Description:
The complex is a heterodimer of chains A (510) and B (517).
Chain A: H1 6-24, H2 27-55, E1 65-73, E2 78-84, H3 88-106, H4 116-135, H5 139-148, H6 150-160, H7 169-198, H8 203-209, H9 216-233, H10 242-249, H11 252-262, H12 264-277, H13 279-305, H14 310-330, H15 334-365, H16 370-373, H17 377-380, H18 382-395, H19 402-415, H20 423-452, H21 471-489, H22 492-509
Antiparallel strand pairs in A: 1-2
Helix pairs in contact in A: 1-2, 1-4, 2-3, 2-4, 3-4, 3-11, 3-15, 3-21, 4-5, 4-6, 5-7, 6-7, 7-9, 7-10, 8-12, 9-12, 9-13, 10-14, 11-15, 12-15, 13-14, 13-20, 14-15, 14-19, 14-20, 15-18, 15-19, 15-21, 15-22, 18-20, 19-20, 19-21
Chain B: H1 10-32, H2 42-58, E1 64-72, E2 75-82, H3 84-102, H4 122-147, H5 151-175, H6 180-211, H7 216-225, H8 230-247, H9 256-263, H10 266-291, H11 296-319, H12 324-353, H13 357-386, H14 402-405, H15 407-421, H16 427-442, H17 446-471, H18 491-508, H19 511-514
Antiparallel strand pairs in B: 1-2
Amino acid sequence: xxxxxxxxxxxxxxxxxxxxxxxxxxxxxxxxxxxxxxxxxxxxxxxxxxxxxxxxxxxxxxxxxxxxxxxxxxxxxxxxxxxxxxxxxxxxxxxxxxxxxxxxxxxxxxxxxxxxxxxxxxxxxxxxxxxxxxxxxxxxxxxxxxxxxxxxxxxxxxxxxxxxxxxxxxxxxxxxxxxxxxxxxxxxxxxxxxxxxxxxxxxxxxxxxxxxxxxxxxxxxxxxxxxxxxxxxxxxxxxxxxxxxxxxxxxxxxxxxxxxxxxxxxxxxxxxxxxxxxxxxxxxxxxxxxxxxxxxxxxxxxxxxxxxxxxxxxxxxxxxxxxxxxxxxxxxxxxxxxxxxxxxxxxxxxxxxxxxxxxxxxxxxxxxxxxxxxxxxxxxxxxxxxxxxxxxxxxxxxxxxxxxxxxxxxxxxxxxxxxxxxxxxxxxxxxxxxxxxxxxxxxxxxxxxxxxxxxxxxxxxxxxxxxxxxxxxxxxxxxxxxxxxxxxxxxxxxxxxxxxxxxxxxxxxx
Amino acid sequence: xxxxxxxxxxxxxxxxxxxxxxxxxxxxxxxxxxxxxxxxxxxxxxxxxxxxxxxxxxxxxxxxxxxxxxxxxxxxxxxxxxxxxxxxxxxxxxxxxxxxxxxxxxxxxxxxxxxxxxxxxxxxxxxxxxxxxxxxxxxxxxxxxxxxxxxxxxxxxxxxxxxxxxxxxxxxxxxxxxxxxxxxxxxxxxxxxxxxxxxxxxxxxxxxxxxxxxxxxxxxxxxxxxxxxxxxxxxxxxxxxxxxxxxxxxxxxxxxxxxxxxxxxxxxxxxxxxxxxxxxxxxxxxxxxxxxxxxxxxxxxxxxxxxxxxxxxxxxxxxxxxxxxxxxxxxxxxxxxxxxxxxxxxxxxxxxxxxxxxxxxxxxxxxxxxxxxxxxxxxxxxxxxxxxxxxxxxxxxxxxxxxxxxxxxxxxxxxxxxxxxxxxxxxxxxxxxxxxxxxxxxxxxxxxxxxxxxxxxxxxxxxxxxxxxxxxxxxxxxxxxxxxxxxxxxxxxxxxxxxxxxxxxxxxxxxxxxxxx
Lengths: 510, 517
């Protein structure tokens, strides 16, 4: 346990403490101070995440650092083992940033159902689960944090969400929690199979062992259970059906955290757990993973072309983007996995921004459907429209913005997959994914044209003039815009972290 | 038997004996206390339980046997043994009983006596002595089961547990004709139990016939040695097992549970779901571990199938319920299914890898967490139920907006429910579920693990439905209406608080229950 190890522990304790403090300040005063308090606790957590990045030895990004390893429940072999490496560090920072931006945004903009105290407490609890998942180095602890997000997210959607024609907020929340709980229950079965064979839940030891002591058949079963469970969260086609309703119903910050951080738990789990722990099993299942990922890319694109609701459209686009991540992971090559991790972070930033902007548009129009929003956003709120267009082109993977590198590297990985994988299949997958990328461009540009352009006369009735980007929106969105550009022009910033870690992963893994 | 006079180890016997003698004390005290003040008998009853608990804690030497015989050949066998399993099960029973004693009676004199539709305070006044007497007798039975190591002690202890429980279910019926459901529930439970007893005794007789002994240790020895006729012994073992499965409400012997819970006063339902159930599991553990060990693989497979059926049918039953007590009744059936999993796994693993005490530990840990959370949920229900009339309006919908009107009780109830579901913040529930799942995976019962995973999701569906209602605020009047709890007297609040404190503590330090064995 290094001297700086307290950072990770504090990063989990601070939001948990914040949640308790916010929930316990009584009466109307509690409701009044809750939102500033939440932003403060979110800010402290973000500072801690930055401290973790500074304390992190970037020359040894392939090893676990800032480790805490305490015995918690010996009877279950459950250790409170935390640590970060080049794979988890970017996600930790992304989560802390998004959570802080959401909490800051909440100080000015609240969902309709009010009750700020409960809302802030629940958001902070959500952050605990997210950060915990990304720093846990014990399988049961990972599972525990994985589950921590369920109830808070359920509340965010059920209580503060909006009912839509296709489903009520409550039923969307129920679908979300039951689907993902089934996923994680199956995932934990995979963990237990691993434990039954190796006798440990410790991720570091398991990654070092690289599947030693597990027969090929066992590895396939364990990998199937873990990948299947994680694929629900990702979400992978055809297990994605909970996502569109959840996104459409969720309030703005709920959508931002759902898309920006929560979905990443699935793909992160695949890279962190499945790949190193059961390498042989992963090898057997990788082609299926890649194929389903590509189906998701195409399915997401076609579904998007048919959407008439902005939030729903972005939700389906997430299925497509996570399809790229899955394809990248399934290549089992450094290029593919680095691409997947890059696309993961880029999607978090870009889709987080998209949901923020669309949330802003929805608040102004009382609707996120094309008909309700109308046209000519460029004329009515030029800055808002410009940011929407910016996020949209970033999302379609324009070179020079963050979305480009992930998809580029993924396709590169698919062109030359690991020698154990069928190359012909991957060439087909690569081509189809390329087609999907074109379709993505098509629907996003179509969306921009539909919403932003056109004569002002076609604007929704009585919405001919709109408030443009407010100061809190500018504050919450600008870090995301800056990072999207930064990661677009300087990919080394992120690849420098992930590449050594991926090398360690594959070096020991294959 | 070499001597007619047995030496008695009073330390081993202490906690159970205190409860048994205490029950008589309470019954006698009842004769001298004027009817109006008999509700106060709760406190001496609680004192008895606390004293027994203190004696239990004081048993530093947790390996004691009494009523022993010399079986010849250097072997000895005891009827009453205190060892870690016994200790843990007795502790669960005592804690459960202590919380139940503090729960309010539906017809306790409330803050507004004589409110319309409310039973008068007569029950607590006139029958409080009987109620506490029955409770202590039943508790003594539950404690004796955990220590029993021969068939007859076990059967008698089981009946000592069960018979008073039926009377407790029927108490309201004896008081007023407005409670036909209580009589019906008691009758069903009684008939089922009598059948179970007959079946058990028949099984015991067969086992005695082929092995010539009633002591579990000697029985296991005879079964291993192969001196017994195997088919007859197998039939005997099956019948003995069937009788015990009645007690833990396993499928297909679960039918009596919902009616008994709903017919009984809520606090009696709480007693049935925790103390009575832990007694049943104690019996099951004792018989399987000490008596039928050699048949591990056979009963392991049977229990695995029964566990899968029990959890599935229990959860499917609970999904449709609107009455909260009926919902908890079905959920407690499902939870029994989860608790059977480690036993099944241990049975199967025993034959391959020697006797696995892990299985017993997993079941006891699960039982302990379940007891705390279920008691908590029942405590909140009992408190709310005691404030309502006899119309029986205690549906899930009645809890709408509880968070606004009684925030603490609402949060506590939500915590108990998510813990029963096994989802954070109910970490204790989650950890014990993982322990149970692990036992299944380790024993190679992959199919059972998958069934259990699906059942965890089914369980969350109905626990969440109730939780959602607690936090739902009526859109029309966000600051009005809903369920308001003004607990009368301090005891019910203490009961809820104790369960909440226990649940939170176990969530922070689950090792406390996992390290029992």
